[in-house]
Amino acid sequence: MVIFGLIQVVCVFYARRHLNVALVTILKLVKSFRASIFSTLSSTPPVSVDLEAEHRLERCSICFQELEKINAGLISLTRREGKVGRSARELSLLLQDIFKTPSSV
């Protein structure tokens, strides 16, 4: 019984650690690429055939949709204490700010 409890504690610790690393990584990615994503989404479509611009627009649209999914999943994580909760709240505030931006699509 003691071994099971120890295994459970170790698993919870590593799950929290992985979750925090994921949140911090997403936060850094959003901070780094949000300007590119939203400038691409808010720009006018190219007049001529520009395959690179079309691919960039498609990638940015997918990224925006994924950020919306991440934002929806953060609600329960923001209620947690510790590093996971702190990271989730910071990411949630950044995403809320991004989604309120008039240039976002």
UniProtKB/TrEMBL annotation:
Chain ranges of the Katanin p80 subunit C-terminal domain: 16-95
Keyword tags: Cytoplasm, Cytoskeleton
Top-level taxon of the source organism: Eukaryota
Subcellular location(s) of the protein: Cytoplasm, Cytoskeleton
One cellular component (GO) term of this entry: katanin complex
Keyword Membrane: no
Claim: Ribonucleoprotein is one of the keywords in the record: no
Coiled coil: none
Record-level GO BP terms: microtubule depolymerization
GO molecular function, one term: microtubule binding
Primary location recorded for the protein, binned into one broad class: cytoplasm
Name of the protein this chain belongs to: Katanin p80 subunit C-terminal domain-containing protein
Organism of derivation: Triticum turgidum subsp. durum
